[in-house]
Amino acid sequence: MSLDLSERIAKLGFSQKELFVGHKACAGCGGTVAVRLALQTLGPRVFVGVPAGCMSAVAFLYPQMAFGVNAMISTFAGTASLLTGIRAAADAQGLRDVHVVGFSGDGGTADIGIQALSGAVERGDKIIYICYDNEAYMNTGIQSSGATPFGASTTTSPAGSVYHGNQKNKKDMFEIIAAHGIAYAATASIGYPQDYIRKVKKAAETDGTSYIHVLAPCPTGWGCATELTAELARLAVDTGLWPLQEYTAGTYAISKDLSTFKPIEEYLRVQKRYRHLLPEEIEKIVANRDHHWERIRNRLRSTAN
Amino acid sequence: MNKEKEFLSGNEAVAAAVALARPEVIAVYPITPQTTIVEKLAEWVANGKIQTQYLNMESEHSALSAVMGASAMGVRTFTSTSSQGLLYMSECLHYAAGGRFPIVMVNANRAVALPWSIFGDQRDSISQLESGWIQLYAENAQEALDLTLQSFAIAEHPEVMLPVMLNVDGFSLTHTYEPVHVPLAEKVNQFLPPYAPTFRMDLEHPLSLGFSAGPRDNTAFKIKQHRAQLNAEKVLEQVDRKYGEIIGRSYGGAVESYYTEDAERTIVTLGSISGLVRDVVDTLRAAGEKVGLLRLRSLRPFPAARIREALAATSRIGVLEKNVSAGYEGTVATHVRGALQTLQGRQPQVRSFTGGLSGRDISAKDIREIYADLQSDTQSTENEVHWVDPGVIYES
Fold it and tell me: Residue A88 is nearest to which of B25, B213, B217, comparing CB atoms?
């Protein structure tokens, strides 16, 4: 491989033209990286829906608009339903080769927006729904969401003397969406941008609904140094906590198989949200991870046979 | 559909009008008593009688959210709902009005839980008066058809650009069959050409919509929205006149006055009960009583000036509505009272009558009793609600 990074990126069909600039996101924001990369992959013939949340708060404060493409804030619960309507109108207008894409956080996806998302997937609407997962309601000040992992401290699941952070396990949106029989679903991480870009391209080429759940660290909410965003996004994958997977027309695949996991402490110890964890709680996180991978591998084995 | 006269329910009349209006996107979610509108439209889509993107959504919130997305793209849109569904949409109602999306929605008026009831009253729509939507009220199936068509023209008018909620009383209007003139498609096309928006999401000229505006700019947007509502009163009269010229029926705008010129007592009401009130007024007039009817066809914009004008001769007014604002009085009564505050020199008395909740029948006798009440000089407590035939109240 003699190609340098920019050549490799160009090979992916990735535009150098920024379509999301001038926003006022926090330093080290992973969510904005997820949006930028997706838009540069999809190009300008795109209609974007963004619910109330970080991306709308940082990009749509009149008169400063950060999207270089058609974009609209939806209601918090209504990302997918807004996209459904946009796609229907595009179809009615005979618009070809356009993408209708949503960028919603984990709260907007796993909690308040899951009904509309489920409906759109069930109908098979040709939309690309991208959940940028920073594992809590960050825009409102780091409250626990259905996608907050076990043990993480948030302002509504703080690390106290009785309860040590969030007591529930992270809702597995990839499995929930795949169970709909969606045309295409994937998990991704902004720490593996080529993999993410490939998945966005695949979503763009999919006839039917696509769902990409991309891990996007939030230094503000996670309590880590702002320069660690990309590194933590990689570590989440390398420690096995965030498996990169795909579901294409009924078939599951692992995008990045791991024979060994990096030590989980490397990921946890640099984040303030996990600082309170006791050894037995870290063991539970490890056990959950191992169980998750066992299920993933068992499923692949059973479908391979 | 192009036959001149058909025997249609209120909902079928609405469906016929929607088909004639040619919306590109229709988003639906079932709720009684609205459902037969969208069932009829689904049947026509399934049989190729109309071409539209027909979206079966997973909730009313999603239905309105979807038509907002479609409207932002610059196409004509329709949805309909009732009661709990309207309330479930409430967030999107404000959103659609603030976003200036000219969506047309028919609300089949229905009681609001608790207690549960599928039957008609007006508490659902009246509770949403502050949502920013234009709110129109039809009296019968013919007017439901005509107002559905007019609603698109009002909503899409460049000086308005607001969503319209057309209210039709549940069951008494939605499910009652009447002979209805269905206009010819070519006449409707002349009255209502394809929607040509000034602004829409466009690949050549991308827009950011649905944005935030902080303390510096927010009020300016609200002032523009308020002006658009005020413009709508003039526009709905223009649209009504144009409809009359092309289709052959018109209603006179935001209010209908019936014998109000010399009326000493006037019953102000809205919706399907107006027909019966008109009959009672006829009977009383025949007996020499100076009574009139003022029918409100629009609650937003609220036609205050026309109400003042129409009630100039009246000294005592009864406002009959299928609604009550618990702890005060009927909301429409409060509005009428407010409209009369600026009358010079005299202050007619306004009494609030609440009846017909959850489809409870309002009879001709009840309306005669309202008139008798208005004839009585006994001063009612200010803001007291006069309950029309409330039934038995079990004290525990």
Answer: B25
Mean pLDDT within B5-23: 97
The distance of Cα A116 from the centroid of its chain, to the nearest Å, equals 17
Contact B65 A74 (CB under 8 A): yes
**Within chain B, which residue ranges are assigned CATH 3.40.50.970?**
5-246
Closest CA to B68 of B94, B88, B49: B94
Instruction: Give chain B as a 3 state SS string.
Output: CCCCEEEEEHHHHHHHHHHHHCCCEEEECCCCCCHHHHHHHHHHHHCCCCCCEEEECCCHHHHHHHHHHHHHCCCCEEEEECHHHHHHCHHHHHHHHHCCCCCEEEEEECCCCCCCCCCCCCHHHHCCHHHCCEEEECCCHHHHHHHHHHHHHHHCCCCCCCCEEEEEECCCCCCCEEEEECCCHHHHHHHCCCCCCCCCCCCCCCCEECCECCCCCHHHHHHHHHHHHHHHHHHHHHHHHHHHHHCCCCCCCCEEEECCCCCCEEEEECHHHHHHHHHHHHHHHHCCCCEEEEEECEEECCCHHHHHHHCCCCCEEEEEECCCCCCCCCHHHHHHHHHHCCCCCCCCEEEEEECCHHHCCCCHHHHHHHHHHHHCCCCCCCCCEEECCCCCCCCC
Q: How far apart are CA A98 and CA A103, in angstroms?
A: 16
User: Which one is the CATH code of B5-246: 1.10.150.20, 3.40.50.970, 3.40.50.620, 3.40.50.300?
Assistant: 3.40.50.970
Joined together, the tokens standing for residue B273 give 């009960």
What's the rounded Cα separation, in Å, for the pair B119 and B56?
24
Domains of chain A, earliest start first? 17-304 (3.40.50.970)
Q: How many CB pairs under 8 A join A and B?
A: 154
Q: Nearest-5° angle of CA B341, CA B343, CA B344? A: 125
B133-171 pLDDT per residue, tens: 999 999 999 999 999 999 999 999 999 999 999 999 999
Separation between Cα atoms, residue A264 and residue A239, nearest integer Å: 5
Burial of B238 (0-12, 13-18, 19+ CB in 10 A): middle
Architecture of domain B255-387: 3-Layer(aba) Sandwich (3.40)
* pLDDT at B2 (0 to 100): 47
Of B53, B59, B89, B211, which to mutate for an interface test with A (greatest number of A Cβ within 10 Å)? Answer: B211
pLDDT digits (tens, 9 = 90+) for A56-112: 999 999 999 999 999 999 999 999 999 999 999 999 999 989 999 999 999 999 999
> In the predicted model, is pLDDT for residue B266 greater than 80?
yes
Q: Is B167 in contact with B129 (CB distance < 8 Å)?
A: no
Q: Are B44 and B19 in contact (CB under 8 A)?
A: yes
Q: State how far the Cα of A178 lies from the Cα of B136, in Å rounded to an integer.
A: 44
List, by residue range, all CATH 3.40.50.920 domains of chain B. 255-387
Distance (Å) of CA B99 to CA B68, B72, B158, B163, B199: 8, 9, 14, 9, 11
Q: Provide, as residue numbers in chain B, all residues whose Cβ is less than 8 Å from the Cβ of A81.
A: 57-58, 61-63, 65-66, 69
Tokens in use for B381?
């407590």
Place of tokens 């039709």: B168
